[in-house]
């Protein structure tokens, strides 16, 4: 049985609302420590985080559209790592994915990975906006480019967030060689457990406290 502590250990406790303040981020960090989550994920302008304790610090680049030049994403990632990010969640260029320009997609990811240095890279593919074939190909290209994780969603795309189907497809494609992060629209303990059982090794959650309260210890 998947327990509360199992889920807490893979949560990226997330606050990416544009109106978030430093006080909001401070509260997020303190709540993350109390809940025993793996990481906190905030906008790059909120870095560095004061006293994160044992929490992993994650941020986002090219967010939420992914439709910026590669060199901008890379520069954003480099600065984020300099500001204390342990992990970087980048958004792919969806226009290139939909056009089948996968060599460009791979180059985009590779350049950002190089800019991350020691930090890990998660690649947000917006799975709800893609066909199964596109999901598989983007995951393959992310692996070839050196990414550490593939991630379902930003949580901001109108097509929707994570689904068990997408998580399983992504997990099957990367075969344990990369992590899989499910993010976007996960609002219940039942949904969090379902994503983990489908193959998610990390969960991006903004309602972490409520979700964990629904699970057995």
TrEMBL record:
CDD domains: DeoC. InterPro entries: Aldolase_TIM, DeoC, DeoC/FbaB/LacD_aldolase, DeoC_typeI. Its EC number is 4.1.2.4. Keywords: Cytoplasm, Lyase, Schiff base. Its main location: cytoplasm. The active site is at residues 89, 151, 181. It is an enzyme of class 4 (lyase). One of its GO terms (cellular component) is cytoplasm. Pfam families: DeoC. GO terms for molecular function: deoxyribose-phosphate aldolase activity. Pathway: Carbohydrate degradation; 2-deoxy-D-ribose 1-phosphate degradation; D-glyceraldehyde 3-phosphate and acetaldehyde from 2-deoxy-alpha-D-ribose 1-phosphate: step 2/2. One of its GO terms (biological process) is carbohydrate catabolic process. It is found in: Cytoplasm. It catalyses: 2-deoxy-D-ribose 5-phosphate = D-glyceraldehyde 3-phosphate + acetaldehyde. Coiled coil: none annotated. SMART domains: DeoC. It comes from the Bacteria. NCBIfam families: deoC. Belongs to the DeoC/FbaB aldolase family. DeoC type 1 subfamily. Catalyzes a reversible aldol reaction between acetaldehyde and D-glyceraldehyde 3-phosphate to generate 2-deoxy-D-ribose 5-phosphate. This is Deoxyribose-phosphate aldolase.
């Amino acid at each position: 049985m998947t327990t509360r502590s199992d889920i807490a250990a893979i949560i990226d406790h997330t606050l990416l609302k544009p109106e978030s303040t430093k006080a909001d981020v401070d509260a997020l960090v303190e709540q993350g420590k109390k809940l025993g989550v793996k990481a906190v994920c905030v906008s790059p302008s909120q870095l560095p985080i004061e006293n994160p304790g044992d929490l992993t610090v994650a941020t986002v680049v090219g967010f939420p559209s992914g439709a910026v030049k590669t060199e901008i994403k890379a520069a954003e990632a480099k600065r984020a790592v300099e500001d204390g990010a342990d992990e970087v969640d980048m958004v792919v260029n969806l226009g290139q994915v939909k056009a089948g320009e996968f060599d460009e997609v791979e180059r985009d990811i590779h350049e950002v990975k190089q800019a991350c240095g020691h930090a890990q890279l998660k690649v947000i593919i917006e799975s709800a906006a893609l066909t199964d074939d596109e999901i598989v190909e983007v995951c393959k290209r992310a692996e070839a480019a050196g990414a550490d994780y593939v991630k379902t969603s930003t949580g901001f795309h109108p097509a929707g967030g994570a689904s068990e189907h997408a998580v399983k497809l992504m997990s099957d494609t990367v075969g344990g060689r990369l992590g899989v992060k499910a993010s976007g629209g996960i609002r219940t303990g039942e949904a969090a457990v379902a994503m983990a059982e489908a193959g998610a090794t990390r969960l991006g959650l903004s309602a972490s406290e409520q979700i964990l309260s629904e699970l057995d210890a």
